[in-house]
TrEMBL record:
It comes from the Bacteria. GO terms for molecular function: ATP binding; ATP hydrolysis activity; endonuclease activity. Pfam families: GpA_ATPase (PF05876), GpA_nuclease (PF20454). This is Phage tail protein. It comes from Salibaculum griseiflavum. Residues 1-25 are annotated as: Disordered. Residues 276-573 form the Terminase large subunit GpA endonuclease domain. Transmembrane segments: none annotated. Residues 18-267 form the Phage terminase large subunit GpA ATPase domain.
Amino acid sequence: MTISDWADQNRRLSSEASAEPGQWRTARAEYQRGIMEAVSDAATETVVIMSSSQVGKTEVVNNCVGYHIDQDPAPIMVVMPTERDAETWSKDRFSPMARDTPSLQHKIANPKSRDGNNKILHKRFPGGHLTIVGANAPSGLASRPIRLLLCDEVDRYPFSAGAEGDPVNLAKKRTVTFWNRKIVLVSTPTNKGESRIEAAFEESDQRRFWVPCPDCGHDQILTWGQVKWDKDEAGGHRPGTALYHCAECDAAWTDETRWAAISKGRWRAEAPFNGTAGFHLNEIYSPWVRLEAMAKAFLSARAGGDETMKTFVNTSLGETWMESGEAPDWQRLQGLKEEWRAGTVPAAGLFLTAGADVQKDRIEVDVWAWGRGLQSWLIDHIVIEGGPGDPVCWQKLTDLLGRTWDHASGTPMTIARLAIDTGYETAAVYAWARQVGFGQVAPVKGLEGFNRASPVTGPTFVDATIAGKRLRRGARLWTIATSTFKAETYRFLRLDPPEVTSPGDGERFPPGFLHLPGWVDAEWLKQLTAEQLVTVKNKRGFAKLEWQKLRERNEALDCRVYARAAAWILGADRWSAARWEELASQFAAVDAKGTVPTRGTHKIRKAQVRRVVRSNYMG
């Protein structure tokens, strides 16, 4: 009896764990049959399932557990990302299955019994036991020998289980004493080059589910590119018309036609079998998802930007997300430059930030204006000669904090926040930042790697050496994931402008569009595009994404990253539409008499002593 046979005969779906309670039917999602048969196959040692959500992969795990408890007793371990996830699975998934499936009811002890055979994370049954652990608990992973290992959502596992190393490898070591061991790895993928499930799938025979067209009979893998929908006369999308189109004859399938075609599909391997069976699925195969809902999710994700699009690619398409970090062509950017009066801020720019890169003989500063949708305009590029060892250099940087740039409305604007790199001459940077105050200045430290949950963390208090004396917690430091902002910058540089362009009309440009002025030269553009994102392997063979320089000088890119971090620190990524509207209302147009409103204005003054300048248009 295979696992799918057992499930069809015995498994009962519980009302609190399934939208369709009652008798299990593998035919409801036919692709699940091949996965469960692979787990039953004695020749298969490892099964890898890389898929989207909503395809029933967790129910496959449940069936594997139920089958072995009833038909082939063995020590079983289920590994979840955290101990809390382990408890949730035990209470919400396993317990209802054990209660409602007749063949399991008398094999699992009553949870109210006092003999300890049915605890939340450890359950005994005749011939074996079930242990449920979190990948963040090394003691649970290394506690006992296991024959059947089921690892769910492995891409959410921590990098290391405590100090003992990779939790998947740690769990696999528990199976080495069994000649007939079985390892099942299940997950929705994450970032390319960092995804455990993708690496495991690439080492498998890479099976994909081929579906015959009801019209022409052509076998095909269902892909998102074949999902199409109409637009109205105004160009608006109509996701309610979404249909799947055959890759061969272009026949349009309704949801019901698609589900019927999937029931006749079959798995086909793309690589030789080596003991590991790999399966890939996306949400288009799911009998519980309509294409209209997928189209709406896609349009919403695309409008939301990189963060939400990554979620769609991972959870709906079951594919890894590739950070769009390849260097754009600087010559293309030459043709995208726009003309507005030098030293002025276009009407759609609502606040200023600056990024400062400290070099041996100079400090380079780029001033950027920001508007709705995180559109940005390069306002000024300043090189302060002298370097961190010259007091005059720091005085000029201090003066820059009080300088103003005219907004298109006539309102003078100052820098709301300046982020300065602390990687070179850290003590000098801390001393200057402490002198001018941390209200307008943010010392930053860049870290490699992607952190999309929070690309900026802090501030943390760090020790600083001021005038030869060490001050505990004397400076505030922000830590930024430079890879995240570099990838975002390059993605914004690839956006196409509208046919009719106007630098001051931000509404016509896509969110995130990066506006470059006509005065910027080729050297600055080359510096902005001076790096590329590549996949490299370390000594242990693990792949990771890494930024590498295409040319030596990259100050423009660094300054952009710091200015972007300054905007994040101010909270621009989290502002509501009302906040943006309030900000825009402070830039009233010049009246008929030519007078400029006084609110939000700042006069230029040479700063001879320590002072802090705060712009009231930022609140």
